[in-house]
Design brief:
- Keywords: ATP-binding, Cell cycle, Cell division, Cell membrane, Membrane, Nucleotide-binding.
- GO terms for molecular function: ATP binding; ATP hydrolysis activity; transmembrane transporter activity.
- The protein has a domain of 65 residues.
- 33% of the residues lie in helices and 24% in strands.
- It is built from 7 helices and 10 strands.
- Bound molecules: adenosine-5'-triphosphate (ATP).
- The site of adenosine-5'-triphosphate has 12 residues, from helix 1.
Length: 229
């Protein structure tokens, strides 16, 4: 699903590369954490996968698509295959829960009938069936993140990218969000999640890819966060 070979990213303003010849292969259906200290390159990796930015070296493919040489006109189609979830939820604050999810489907050209059918299904999946008409500010942080996950999942992405999705949530709420991401993973969606949350990483025992100063320093199948971090 993800193939990164010697991928580097050198920002113009920076002296050292944010990513330095990293090799990562993630298979379809895998669940993998990307961990590492602040500035190690986690968000940069996710940005390259979303094609918000382009590597300055190496090969990068998602689902067989070459992201290095991808034409600008194909970027939107690439992003449509992905779901993205962020620490700060990024909901449309002036739209209801239902509209937030529906709008994401509208912009990718889904018919009104299909949106009408899909939105209640995904809201039920994330446990928000009674809250379709609420505004985001009428929800708890955990509920807002559920809306963001519903929105990311509505189009059944092949790959879900999550950048610190539990960063603003308390431990119990974070655990619930992880159950939801596991559930999404069980439907066949590959999940790549950047996190600082050692409790979550230790309890899930999933693949752990550790970055330090832009290099992969550990890639373990059923890893833990690590001692003393
Ligand atoms: N737009 C940019 N221009 C210049 N340098 C950048 C840019 N974005 C990130 N960097 C640098 O690239 C390196 C990696 O940053 P990145 O945001 O990928 O790290 P991170 O592991 O996600 O950190 P955090 O956990 O704090 O989010 C850092 O040294 C950062 O300062």
């Amino acid at each position: 699903m993800i193939h990164a070979s010697k991928v580097s990213k050198q920002y113009k303003a920076s002296t050292r590369p944010a990513l330095d010849e990293i090799n990562i292969d993630v298979d379809k259906g895998e669940f993998a954490f990307v961990i590492g200290p602040s500035g190690s390159g986690k968000s940069t990796l996710l940005r390259l996968l979303i094609r918000e930015d382009v590597p300055t070296g190496g090969e990068l493919e998602v689902n067989g698509e070459d992201l290095v040489h991808m034409r600008r006109g194909k970027v939107a189609a690439h992003r449509r295959k992905l779901g993205c979830v962020f620490q700060d939820f990024r909901l449309l604050t002036n739209r209801t829960v239902e509209q937030n999810v529906g709008f994401a489907l509208e912009v990718i050209g889904r018919s009104r009938a299909s949106i009408k059918q899909t939105v209640p299904e995904v809201l039920e999946m994330v446990g928000l069936e009674g809250k379709a008409n609420r505004m985001p500010n009428e929800l708890s942080g955990g509920e807002q993140q559920r809306v963001a996950i519903a929105r990311a999942f509505a189009n059944r992405p092949i790959l879900l990218l999550a950048d610190e999705p539990t960063g603003n949530l308390d431990p119990d709420t974070s655990a619930d969000i992880m159950l939801l991401l596991e559930r999404i993973n069980r439907t066949g969606t590959t999940v790549l999640m950047a996190t600082h949350d050692n409790t979550i990483v230790d309890s899930m025992r999933r693949r752990v890819i550790e970055l330090q100063l832009g290099k992969v320093v550990r890639d373990e199948a059923r890893g833990v966060y690590g001692v003393g971090r």
